Structure formats: structure tokens, C-alpha cells
Amino acid sequence: MPKIVDHDERRAHIVEAVTQIIIRDGFDRVTMREIAAEAGYAHGAIARYFPDKQALLTAAFLQVFNSSHDRTLQEIEGVRGLDALRRMSRVLLPYSDVGINKSRIVLSFWDRAAQDQGLWEIHHENIMRRRQFIRRFLTEAMEDGELAAHVNIEVAVEEVSARNAGWQMLAVLVPEAATNAKLDASLDALIRSFRAPIPESL
In this structure, is residue 35 part of a structural domain? Predict the structure, then answer.
């Protein structure tokens, strides 16, 4: 009886091989030969699913963003406002070695997207989707009366976006400044800066 091949699983395994090479060796080492060796497949098997390196990089790029998006949806289920904003930010923060490795992948993709229009468009679409989440959570906070009166939502969207990107860069380039405790403290301070003061009891 012929062996049944799960093509989706094999495709995902190949994409995971790409991310592992980026984490370990950097973007420049991502070649079809290296990918085949990492995945444990013949070069021809890789080409069956991805005709060239560009198709592989695009798939890996999408996998990183879609994974973060799916985890965000799980974390924010049933919550809104500043609590949802905090939970989404925690998904993106580079906690522990796993988070730092993901940040290495993200930074590599940023560099690549700056030079490749196709990857730039994918990156831009996903960043805009993330910014829509931030805007939604801040709007909910305003509707629920938990957003401080001085907070301009559009300015706050820019601040949260910049902080998230900055934390990822720190984790890779200045890891001692991005320990779990420091990340938590920075995120807590950011959320506090948006929160309306609690009225004093009469």
C-alpha cells in the first residue's frame, strides 16, 4: 500500500526549516541546498512545494505573521480595552530564548522586506492589521471610560507600534536591556500611561 503523504505537513516542515536556518546562521545562509539539508529532504522534494527561494521566503514570512496573529486572537478572546492591548503586546514581546529567536527572524525579514517589494507588501499588510487591533483596543478603552482624557488615540497607536518594534530590536541587539522583568516593567508603564485615574471614594 503506497504511503500517504501529508503535503500540508511537509510544506510546514520545510518552512520551519527556513526559520531555523535564519535563527542559527542568518538570512544569507538560506539557500535551497541548506533548506533541503535542514528539512531532511532531497532538493527535488523542496522544489515540488516551493519553486524557488523567493517562494520559500514569502511562505516563511507569512508563517511568522500568521502565527502571531493566531496567538493574538486566542489571547484577546473575551477581553477588550487596555487588557486586550496588554495581552496582544505580550504575544509580541520577546520573552525568553523562544521570543528572542522569533525577534531574530522578524529583524531579518525587516531587512529583506526593505529591499523586496513583494515582501514589503506582505509586511505592510500585516503591520496595518496589527495597528487596527491597537486602535480598536484603545477605542474600546475610551468607550469603557478607562482611557485617560489626555490620550490621543492615533498618537497612542504610533507609540505602541514603535514600542513593540523597539522591544524586538533590543532583545536581539541589547539583550541585557530586554530581560523578562524589564519587558514586563516597560509594558506595565506604557499601559499605566494610557489608563484614566481611579476616582477617589467619597
Answer: yes
